[in-house]
Design a protein that fits this description.
The chain has one domain: Growth Hormone, Chain: A, CATH 1.20.1250.20. 80% of the residues lie in helices and 0% in strands. The two termini are 29 Å apart. The C terminus is likely disordered.
């Protein structure tokens, strides 16, 4: 028996449940996010919302920035109330939020509902990462996190592929797909997810959040870390244009009349390949 096989057999069931949930969560998120810029700025005649580029930028940029900051706080919530409860709350928010996004027609309503979805995603992220950490050890952690990020890529590949096809029929199908996929995770959490052993946090929620914020300021006192973070911010700002700018450029500025029947497959290829490349960078 190879060492790889021995390591694979050491993972508990909760580990496999966690990475499976990651596939479905990324499927839903990237399925929506890959085509969201086109949906926000596309012509109302096509079923899109017809927002300006500025409105699109503020919705996608501000909300996603908030999303990636919130896990610093939502992680404390998960430690306080338990992983399973927080996962159920996260999936309830995500499923309902994705569905509601398909019914929003104004800038303010879309901004608020997408922010609602971001809260769900922010609740999910620290729990799933912590679950992977607590279900691996020194021997299995490398392969464990490798499998985890592979599942990120799998979900990020499948989601845009389906979304680019479904939007050709009706935009609402994209959001229904995302909502339905998240419902699968409800089943996984309720029947198969076993909360890993963790240190019980007896502090109040306010005290827990206060500790987190203090630790952040301590970490930011290291100027080398700050420089590294600034570099990473610049990198991700550029890379995120795969979602914010490139789809709109292809859809609204390139001449796609040369073969309209061939346009949808081309869009599907762009969505899946670019998103796969994005997630490879995220993994490494």
């Amino acid at each position: 028996m190879s060492n790889f096989t021995k390591v694979i057999k050491k993972f508990p069931r909760t580990f496999w449940v966690a990475i499976t949930m990651e596939v479905f969560e990324r499927w839903a998120w990237y399925g929506v996010f890959m085509v969201l810029a086109i949906y926000l700025t596309g012509s109302r005649d096509t079923g899109a919302l017809g927002f300006t580029q500025t409105q699109k930028g503020s919705i996608m940029g501000v909300v996603v920035a908030i999303l990636y900051f919130m896990p610093l706080l939502t992680g404390a919530i998960a430690d306080k109330f338990g992983y399973k409860k927080v996962l159920l709350l996260a999936f309830g928010i995500l499923s309902s939020g994705y569905l509601l996004m398909g019914y929003m027609t104004t800038y303010s309503s879309m901004f608020l509902i997408f922010l609602f979805v971001a809260v769900g995603a922010a609740l999910f992220k620290p729990v799933i990462s912590a679950t992977i950490t607590k279900t691996t050890d020194d021997e299995t952690s490398s392969i464990g996190f490798g499998l985890f990020y592979m599942m990120v890529n799998v979900g990020g590949f499948i989601g845009p592929l389906f979304a680019s096809k479904l939007r050709a029929y009706d935009w609402s199908y994209v959001f229904i797909m995302a909502s339905a996929i998240i419902l699968v995770n409800f089943i996984l959490v309720i029947f198969f997810y076993k909360e890993p052993k963790r240190t019980i946090n007896n502090d109040s929620l306010i005290d827990s959040v206060t500790k987190v914020l203090k630790n952040i300021f301590v970490a930011l006192s290291d100027y080398k870390l700050v420089i590294f973070l600034v570099i990473m911010v610049g990198f991700w700002t550029l890379l995120n244009q795969l979602y914010y700018a490139m789809p709109v450029f292809i859809d609204q500025w390139m001449d796609n009349n040369f073969a309209r029947n061939d346009y949808q497959p081309r869009c599907s290829v762009y969505c899946t390949v670019s998103n796969f490349s994005f997630n490879l960078c995220y993994a490494f």
